[in-house]
Amino acid sequence: MSTPVELLRVPANGIEVNVAVAGSGPALLLLHGFPHTWRLWSAVIGPLSERFRVIAPDLRGLGDSSRAAGGYDGETLAADAEQLLAALDVDSAAVVGIDAGAAPAFLLAMRRPDLVRQLVLMEAILGRLPGAEDFRAAGAPWWFGFHAVPGLAETVLAGHEAEYVDWFLATGTQGRGIPAGVRDAFVAAYTGTESLRCAFEHYRAMPETASQIAAATAGHRLTVPVLAVGAQPVGPALYQQVREVADDVTRQDIAECGHIIPLDRPEALLAVLNDFLITSR
């Protein structure tokens, strides 16, 4: 029998965080990206909950968390996560971040190595840290600029949210797609001008987040064990960034896998996570 998932609304850092919680044991915090919600982890949350207390929030402004006016930079998102864990009486957690969830996971581990016992980062580029020069050579993906212009993308896309989200879901799974129920939940979460605005505020805060990452790593190193997981399109670029600033970093690439690793290759991800989270304690 699968472990039931409980949905909670938890006040944290001036907002209400919608969070899925399942299982018992050492805490495991999962931070999703765009265009996702906590349901990004739908295929892995059950198996992980057999060994861990899984905590999977909707990021600020996304899913059923508060549509905040601001605070979409990495440090504020890290504070959201930190205060969420405190509200749930967690004093030690492994933290996993993918895509937009990677920067706050990284910054939380830099600020609170006493709280983050292990860190997993997947399919993201961490600001302007060295190591990703080859990846950056082709320029940022086209949607970064589109999302960054205040008020533009949410106006253009109103009424066409489903088509837009579907493009990312197809591209992020190399055309394989995701379960219909999860897809419908993502589309619903990103429908409406205000929902889109909040999503794109994460992109508009990227320059500030990049500056925060640079400041956090200036003269400081990441001391917790780190696993950098690559797929397509980021591949080894994330590992190459992290190894420049971390004392203990492991690389794991998942073959024939799109950007949305937890839904595209969940079994492969589970094997990678279980191996790292158990052996690097």
Q: Briefly, what is this?
A:
By secondary structure, the chain is of the alpha/beta class. 42% of the residues lie in helices and 17% in strands.
Task: Please give a structural write-up.
By secondary structure, this protein is α/β, with parallel strands linked by helices. Helices cover 42% and strands 17% of the residues. The protein has 13 helices and eight strands. Strands 1-2-4-3-5-6-7-8 form an eight-stranded mixed β-sheet, with helices on both faces. A hairpin with a 2-residue loop joins β1 and β2. The longest helix has 14 residues, at 74-87. The chain starts with 5 loop residues before the first strand and ends with a helix. 52% of the residues are buried. The model has no long low-confidence stretch (mean pLDDT 97).
What is the percentage of strand-forming residues?
15-25%
Question: Count of DSSP helices?
Answer: 13
N/C terminus separation: 28 Å
The general outline is globular
Helix content: 40-55%
* Unreliable parts: none
**Order of adjacent strands in the largest pleated sheet:** 1-2-4-3-5-6-7-8
Q: Which structural class do you get from the secondary structure elements?
A: alpha/beta
Q: What's the total number of strands? A: 8
What is the CA-atom radius of gyration, in angstroms?
A: 17 Å
Mean pLDDT: 97
Order of helices and strands: EEEHEHEHEHHHHHHHEHEHH
| Major sheet summary line | 8 strands, mixed
